[in-house]
Amino acid sequence: MALRQGLTRALGGVAIVALVAGTAACNKGSSDSGTSAGGKNCGYSIGYLGALTGPSANLGVNIEQGAELAIEQYNKKNGKDCITIKKFDSQGSADVAPGLARQLVADKKIIGVVGLPFSSESQAANPILNDAKIPNITPSATNTTLSEKGWTYFHRAVANDSAQGPAAGNYMKSVMKVQKAFVVDDQSAYGVGLADQVKAVLGSAVVGSDKVGGEGKQTDFSATVTKVVASGATALFYGGYYQNAGLFRKQLTAAGWTGALVAGDGVNDKGYIQAAGKEAAEGTILTCPCAPASKAKGSFVTDYKARWNVDAGTYSDVAYDAANIYLEGISKGNTTTEKLNEYLKTVNYTGIANTYKFTDKGELDPTKLIVWAFKVSGGEVVPDQEAPKA
Amino acid sequence: MLLELDNVTLLYGRIQALHGISLTVDEGEIVALIGANGAGKTTTMRAISGLRPVASGSIRFNGEDITRLRADLRVVRGLCQSPEGRGVFPGMSVLDNLDMGAYTRKDRAGIAADLERVLTLFPRLKERAKQAGGTLSGGEQQMLAVGRALMSRPKLLLLDEPSMGLAPMLIQQIFDIITEINQQGTTILLVEQNAQQALSRAHRGYVLETGNIVRSGTGTELLHDPAVKEAYLGVA
Amino acid sequence: MNFSNLFSQFGELTVTGLAQGAIIALFALGYTLVYGVLRLINFAHSEVFTVGAFTAVLTWGAFGLDQDSRTPGLGGFVGYLLIGLLVAAAASAATAVVIELVAYRPLRRRNAPPLAFLITAIGASIAISEFVGVLTHRNNKGVPRLLTQEPVFRIADGRVTNLQILIVVVALAMMIGLDFFINRTRLGRGIRAVSQNPDSAALMGVNKNRVISLVFLLGGLMAGVAAIMYLLKIGNVRYDNGLYLGVEAFSAAVLGGIGNLRGALLGGFVLGVFENYVSGLFGTQWHSVGAFVLLVVLLMFRPTGLLGESLGRARA
């Protein structure tokens, strides 16, 4: 017994020595680069509020990893743990998000939020962020109404559905030259918004429409498949998210429907191909109010891959930019939530994916809007072309 | 001794229902257990058949201690009860009900013979063979319950209130059949409110009062016991 | 309302509804069997289905099949189908029996009140589905395409595919087999006896615990077969699919008369077809509204369901 205690103590001693030595080495390294870890404007946090698990986690993980990469790169220059990221896993659920938002605002170190990724959870949680005066930048929630609620702390770093919907419609009309289209949505705020925009652009070319259950709520689409086949449509727009889009596409193909499925950024994910299967997914057109992550400037693509061991996904680049906007603001001394929000009003930041300038409603400046069409080819989502604006 | 209860006690929650019952049944006998409502007659039967666990004491059957044996295994040992309230399976035909009596048996020939015997004892059941148990009259259900118990070819047949709710003519008939079954070689333990009939048919009897055995003797002795006469035979 | 839609697609909606209804019916049998014997809604039955489905997909995966692999020929299809049916039925049945042993039997031994059973059932359901969810990262798992769906013949405007025929035939065959087992065999008679009068059954020598295990086993077998039919039809499975389908299956059981095997079959078909008609007439978003309004209205006029509580008629 005594022997063992002695051994433990000895080992503990070695560990402490190693730790002290390590810390000393670190300090030495950072003082070489000119900024010390205890320098000004450190000790703040940027929050991520959005899905990390749950049925639509992939998109959330893309965003969180983009933001975290930006913060880590910043800390490399400005000292270990200068700015920390705090993650709140909403599971993409509008029921879970408000509670987490309340937890988040209680943490006074958090002065800016990257999120929320989805429109429905944004509608539920944003009032709380706004009341607490926490600036937030969503890199992906695209429902148009989010900027119309008078939330002065809300910002959107991508085009909203009023840009994406028409772009998808225009792509179907001008590029695909669709004569007969069917439109389906999943009854989510996001899905309905997009589908209605597409219907408006396509007009009389829409030969039928239907509404289905959202993620996890419906798996048998046979009634809708019947309608699509009977309508003679050659293309189908689906307003919704990737898992059910995949299930739906698979059942359409199994029933012998060979038309093309077109969908928005909520489906622009590898998970769609996993759900549909490569063969059924082939040829699907996916729009995104973003430029291809692979077309991002600088070393982002390789840095991301090196850090996370996966390719940068949809919105990883925008989330990276959003985090960097905050970091630039903080480094310029905007270290309260109010000051940081004022900073966002005037910012004109050139990032790796886009140049960011916000309107007074928090939307991107109309000249900065980008919508791309992607295509599923050989089991991969590859950039096709920028969607026509009309 | 075929059945021996030694100082059996039984609890319903905190209420003690049996306060140390001791009784015996010998092979070939009809033994009657009489008593007023709530005296513990049915409870004693449930203890013997295994539907209720006993708190203390022991039950021996055919030389084996069965105090803690599961109810369905007691049937295999040759102990079969026709429960109070008849307990026929209402959704099954009369024949299926009778087949249930032979559930633990494998000897097809023997089962067929016993079925014949039961249908001879109870011609009414033969007429109603395909009818669902739940659609029979009270008397017919009683016949079915007794017939079903016989189908297990028990060493000891436990009959709980076989005359309950029956017209006087039917009561006579059912006791005739009980006597007949006994004469064919089945030992019977009988619980009855109709003490007159029960004691006049039984070799021996026990009188139960609030969970205790207060008297015992041959059927004739008890029939002529003044206290029994007053309490259970309606004679002043 | 879109009547022309409903009429022009009536045949197709009927056929696809029957196929979905057949799956629901097989699934519903487990609820009805357990209810018939224990007067308990075994909510964890939805997870019995889920476990069977994932086991089959994993087994096919072990044979090198995934959803992107080529569709095998007829021989391969039959072989993989039988393997799938076998492992799914075995896994589902084992899950059901284990749930009974671990969750319900200790409660029965202690004479627990009905509420304890209900909460245990819900708890077991959530615990297992969440466990599967965590293991599978809550992702859809794609199912190998074992069969190319092709129309075999037409009824009016409706195309009837090989898969739809398979699903309905398998469901009917399982149903007939189960019906025979319950009504014509000694063990089946034991099940009916326990469901109609548990005490009398014990006095006839029926081992109640063994009957209860058997009932869970049979329900599990049916759920496993339902899971395979579901996989072939839907092409994907996720940890919470059982929960949603389970609500429909349970409703189908009540619709047909809970405790009644034929009622479960009828309830499944009625529910599947009716949901499709509502989808055709009002739009798919209304299908659950339609189905559950039907359930509520029907129960108002026939509180014991379409065919009544047959296994359970005993207590009346």
UniProtKB/TrEMBL annotation, chain A:
Keywords: Amino-acid transport, Signal, Transport. InterPro entries: Leu-bd, Leu_Ile_Val-bd, Peripla_BP_I. The keyword Transport applies. It comes from the Bacteria. The keyword Signal applies. Residues 45-361 form the Leucine-binding protein domain. Pfam families: Peripla_BP_6. One of its GO terms (biological process) is amino acid transport. Belongs to the leucine-binding protein family. PANTHER family: AMINO ACID BINDING PROTEIN, LEU/ILE/VAL-BINDING ABC TRANSPORTER SUBUNIT. This is Branched chain amino acid ABC transporter substrate-binding protein.
UniProtKB/TrEMBL annotation, chain B:
Residues 3-235 form the ABC transporter domain. SMART domains: AAA. GO terms for biological process: L-amino acid transport. InterPro entries: AAA+_ATPase, ABC_branched_ATPase_LivF/BraG, ABC_transporter-like_ATP-bd, ABC_transporter-like_CS, BCAA_Transport_ATP-bd_LivF, P-loop_NTPase. GO terms for molecular function: ATP binding; ATP hydrolysis activity; branched-chain amino acid transmembrane transporter activity. It holds the Pfam family ABC_tran. Signal peptide: none annotated. SUPFAM superfamilies: P-loop containing nucleoside triphosphate hydrolases. Keywords: Amino-acid transport, ATP-binding, Nucleotide-binding, Transport. PANTHER family: HIGH-AFFINITY BRANCHED-CHAIN AMINO ACID TRANSPORT ATP-BINDING PROTEIN LIVF. Belongs to the ABC transporter superfamily. This is ABC transporter ATP-binding protein. It comes from Planosporangium mesophilum.
UniProtKB/TrEMBL annotation, chain C:
GO terms for molecular function: L-isoleucine transmembrane transporter activity; L-leucine transmembrane transporter activity; L-phenylalanine transmembrane transporter activity; L-valine transmembrane transporter activity. The chain crosses the membrane at residues 20-41, 48-65, 77-103, 115-136, 163-182, 211-232, 252-274, 281-301. Keywords: Amino-acid transport, Cell inner membrane, Cell membrane, Membrane, Transmembrane, Transmembrane helix, Transport. It is found in: Cell membrane. Its main location: membrane. CDD domains: TM_PBP1_LivH_like (cd06582). Pfam families: BPD_transp_2 (PF02653). InterPro entries: ABC_transp_permease, BCAA_transport_permease. It is a multi-pass membrane protein. One of its GO terms (cellular component) is plasma membrane. One of its GO terms (biological process) is D-alanine transmembrane transport. Belongs to the binding-protein-dependent transport system permease family. LivHM subfamily. This is Branched-chain amino acid ABC transporter permease. It comes from Planosporangium mesophilum.
